Amino acid sequence: MTPRRAISPHDSGSHFDPEPGERSSQQLHWRTLRALLPLLWPYGRIDLRLRVAAAIIALIAAKAVTVYVPFLYKAAVDSLAPEASAALAAVAVPVALIIAYGVSRIMMIGLAQLRDGLFAEVGQNAVRVVAVRTFRHIHALSLRFHLDRRTGALNRVIERGTKGIEFLLRFTLFNILPTIIELILVCGILGWMFGIWYTAVTGLAMGLYIWFTFAVTEWRTAFRRQMNDRDADANTKAIDSLLNFETVKYFGNEEHEARRFDKSMIGYEAAAVKTTTSLAWLNTGQTVIFTAGLTAIMLMAGFGIARGTMTIGDFVLVNAFLIQLYQPLNLLGSVYREIKQSLIDMEAMFNLLDVAPEIADREAAPDLKVEGGEVAFDHVSFAYDAERGILHDVSFRVPAGNTLALVGPSGAGKSTISRLLFRFYEPVEGRILIDGQDIREVKQKSLRAAIGMVPQDTVLFNDTIRYNIRYGRPDATDEEVENAARLAQIADFIAKLPSGYDTMVGERGLKLSGGEKQRVAIARTILKNPPILLLDEATSALDSHTEKEIQAALRQVSHNRTTLIIAHRLSTVVEADEILVLEHGRIVERGRHGDLVARGGKYAAMWNRQREVDRVREQLEETLAHETEIEMSDSAPAGAVSEIDQTR
Ligand code: ATP
């Protein structure tokens, strides 16, 4: 199987947009917000619902205290005014009022913290539920979907989307809504206490402030987006470059890589500068509008005092109300931007959840019932893309317990046959049957449970050897794991490792050689113990010793199972019950090894060519082994031996 997950820095792949024009962004925002509601009132979680209710009570109490605090402030100021009497009782009143003011301020902050603490579990539960739902869904999507997208991009969609949920829940509920309520309350109270002009001026100033904030934030969003895009671009380039560390060294292209990275960073730099300078505009404008409103109101209150219609306390009250509003309003710009971004991120995630798996189980599909494990392809044709047919009218039958070998030039369609059997894709025409059951009609899970796959390029999990072998059957005991390793001819190798079965294999299993990885894959397939086996032989040449070991391991595992071998080395297929020679997706020859060689056709030509190659290779290996013996027997010091090794 040829790996096709090429790393292309150009493929950002992070958008899962619907058809353009299909839905307006407003509709999408509503849809997203509606999707949030059930998360706020989680089904079957009384504890979380109680928390939501308690958090809302804390929120209302905090707002009530917030609006009340300026009144205490005003009363304290008025009681301190020069005309107030100097009697003891008159001293006690302002002291009590000041203390009450202090306590109220603590309550205001304390209630807000209580609200956040109570709500934290609701928000985090929502994040977990949606993240796991999306993760499951991504695993349910088809191979075609995954080959078309980059894993990192998918991961980012989940990460950003779930963060967006948390942010939206917390900020719409506890920031935007309460601020709007407070604003309305303040305007109402000012109007009721001091007249309609106070409401009008406050309302106008705050309205202007909000409009300005939203407008400038919209304008700035473009710079932010540019900055994020450039950042993602620089990141992709850096990761791509580091993943290809060895290739960079092979070609001595460090300077080229640094220049490419710098080019992306220059873009980032420019966008970041614009983001910062536009923030300065936003902050300046906000301050001017707010302070103008505040000054106007304070001037009006000042005239009120001069006319004797207002007290000093009223002056302070008006000021306190407005100053208290400043803090949430000041955050409005970033909250607005973040909310918009959260909506976009969540939409990307919900769009991903909307992608239907290409291959889905039929409704009420039964499990596959395997008796012997007979596999049959019945006039199967297939194309990845409609324009280019890959398999044409392929038919064969592998009786239970038999071995079928698929041979042919690279690109002939051998691995495609294995992907079709695994139902990663569906045939365009024809049927695939296992013990007489069409694989389209049974549950995918039961189908895949019946097939063991040893791929050409085994990718391992970045964990221990034991974990990777046990992956074949997670409940296997240590003895079973070790027994499987023995059967797969890898136990001796593991025994020689300092940490044995607990050796970490590195990312993708890179610390093991190709042959070792493949034997780990064989061991885990032995543990899985499936009735049908698919073996995709490695194309890369292994030395004949490793090759023999792998073949012995394969013989072990395929004993008594229906086996399909995709073979690159014909020595593997000599004993197969049937060999299919595939060319351009068509079966051009079929039969047993002896018959095919005798026929003198394509297979015979391939066989002769390979024998010649094998003969040369064995000679070469013998010569090398012989030379090494001579070097070892020369009394060269250890350092010299390793030098010789390195120069070879
Ligand atoms: P090899 O021996 O090199 O592994 P193969 O015989 O197994 O080759 P396949 O992997 O089955 O060949 O590929 C058959 C053809 O299908 C190739 O031409 C390949 O380019 C094409 N192909 C494989 N996978 C895809 C895909 N996901 N999308 C489009 N074309 C594909």
Secondary structure: elements and pairs:
Elements: H1 25-40, H2 46-79, H3 88-140, H4 143-148, H5 151-194, H6 196-243, H7 245-250, H8 254-307, H9 312-354, E1 375-385, E2 388-398, E3 403-407, H10 414-421, E4 429-434, E5 437-438, H11 444-449, E6 451-454, H12 465-470, H13 478-487, H14 491-496, H15 514-528, E7 532-536, H16 544-558, E8 562-566, E9 578-583, E10 586-591, H17 593-599, H18 602-633, H19 638-647
Parallel strand pairs: 3-8, 3-9, 6-7, 7-8
Antiparallel strand pairs: 1-2, 1-4, 4-5, 9-10
Helix pairs in contact: 1-9, 2-3, 2-5, 2-9, 3-5, 3-9, 5-6, 5-9, 6-8, 6-9, 8-9, 13-15, 15-16, 17-18
Describe what is shown at a glance.
The chain contains 19 helices and ten strands. The chain has helices spanning 25-40, 46-79, 88-140, 143-148, 151-194, 196-243, 245-250, 254-307, 312-354, 414-421, 444-449, 465-470, 478-487, 491-496, 514-528, 544-558, 593-599, 602-633, 638-647; strands at residues 375-385, 388-398, 403-407, 429-434, 437-438, 451-454, 532-536, 562-566, 578-583, 586-591.
